[in-house]
Amino acid sequence: MLKKLLWQLGPLVALFVILLFFSLADSIWGEGYFMSARNLRVISSSAALIAVPAFGMTLIIISGGIDLSAGTALTLSGTALALCLKNGDPIMNAMILMVGVGCVCGMANGVIISATKVVPFIVTLGTMTIFLGIGQIVSSESTVYAPKENIPEWLSLCYTGGNDTKYLIPKIPTSVVIAAALGIGVATMMRYTVFGRNVFAIGSSESTARLCGINVPFTVISVYTIAGFFVAVGGLLYFADVKNGNPSDGTGKELEIIAAVVLGGGSLSGGRGSIFGTMIGALIITAIRSGCSQLSIPNTYTHIIIGCIIIVAVIVDQLRHGSPEWFFRLFRN
Asked: Which of 71, 98, 69, 72 has the alpha carbon at shortest distance from 83?
């Protein structure tokens, strides 16, 4: 029990070490702003942009799948919202369209995977480029800017400045509150509902789940559709952050979304993962980026650092499964 608890707290310990390291490094070589209240708000708000779509990815990875189309589906949803606001449509209609686009993208992935039995990696690799192409068509291959007067003031969800009137809760960006609320909701669903247990069962062993009477195709489609909802909310936060829609911005976002799940303890083999861990994983990514920025480390080296940490996380996951065998044979001999 203690060993399991230590494994679960691993990502939290890693986050603490990263914060401590950059705090000390910034106080010595930087300007001492890393642990400032403003920078912590920026880190948490940036983490929310990754964490929200990563909640859906957590469900997919727990079920034994993967979604490489999450990034382009996210910016497609954000572009749909930007187009509606540009055309002067009511914000409610724009929000409904945005959520609909995200859910349809997710449902399409789930239906194709369930109907064809093709590996999710291949299916979503294809839909990734399809969603990118659709976005480029509807946006006429350009960035969509909505007039400032058409954007409601409450849509400043990622605001991290000093004007308290724009925070849902004083000093906490609204994006963080939204991410926390959604995280609590989906974590509760996964822990206390039959659907949540079914998702874990499918990820652990799909054949055993079928023998237990679980409707695997329906559950898989539901998982990808729910993930599409979180992608759509991620599209809302994306638009709130940049105030425009560009489908090409989604290329590469799926990697950091998957990375948040992996760094949070999710297993690419399926059957394991947690929403809390995903939140920590998103914070790890944004803390590293912020710390490197404070120390004036170029983005190229930041990508290398994050990539190395992801590889270490995957290796640790493999060690938990007793792989590679040669490594454990060294200790037995």
From this structure: 98
CA distance 161 to 332: 57
Answer yes or no: is 324 within a domain: no
Domain, as residue range, for 66: 9-319
Q: What is the pLDDT of residues 297-311, one digit of tens each?
A: 998 898 898 888 888
Sorted by sequence, the CB contacts under 8 Å of residue 155 that are 6+ apart come out as: 91, 239, 240
Beta pairing partners, 198:
none
Task: Write the secondary structure of 222-247 as one string of H (helix), E (strand) and C (coil).
Answer: HHHHHHHHHHHHHHHHHHHHHCEECH
Model pTM score: 0.92
Q: Which of 242, 92, 113, 226 is nearest to 175 (CA)?
A: 242
CATH number (domain holding residue 207): 1.10.3470
Total number of domains constituting the chain = 1
Q: How far from 205 is each of 64, 104, 246, 287, 315, CA to CA, in Å?
A: 9, 27, 39, 35, 22
Residue 212 lies in a domain: yes
Element (H, E) at 144: strand 144-145
Residue 199 included in any domain: yes
The residue-averaged pLDDT of 96-119 equals 96
Length of the chain: 333
